[in-house]
Specification:
Elements lengths: L5 H8 L3 H9 L18 H15 L4 H13 L4 H37 L4
Helix pairs in contact: 4-5
């Protein structure tokens, strides 16, 4: 069983200890087990959730959406359909953002090309 400290987790995932504590407070991870001296001992399960939350946050999912997803996840198999619908909704929103960014990227490429060809 893997046990690592908050500093090791912060270093591994390149997030602050405060962020980890916040995620725990908001129910996105944990509650994290603590040693007899009160030091957090992150388990493999915690690390998997941290990795998921970090990925979803970088994709733009809100804390509220992630809290709802984790709440449903923690309730078990009876919530699979609700979790799927939540993820599909977020997937659609993310695809719309990606399409918008792709359009902006293509416009930037076009403008740069015009400058490079001295057409501006």
């Amino acid at each position: 069983m893997v046990k690592i400290t908050i500093q090791e987790v912060a270093d591994k995932y390149e997030i602050s200890k405060d962020t980890l504590r916040y995620y725990e407070k908001e129910g996105l991870i944990g509650p994290v087990l603590k040693s007899s001296s009160g030091i957090r001992d992150y388990q493999e399960f915690d690390l998997e959730r941290i990795e998921f939350v970090k990925c979803m946050r970088s994709a733009g999912l809100s804390i509220a959406v992630l809290k709802e997803y984790m709440r449903l996840y923690d309730e078990g198999d009876s919530t699979k359909e609700a979790r799927l619908k939540l993820l599909q909704k977020e997937q659609k929103l993310l695809k719309e953002k990606i399409d918008c960014m792709e359009d902006a990227y293509q416009k930037l490429n076009y403008k740069i090309k015009l400058y490079q060809e001295n057409k501006i």
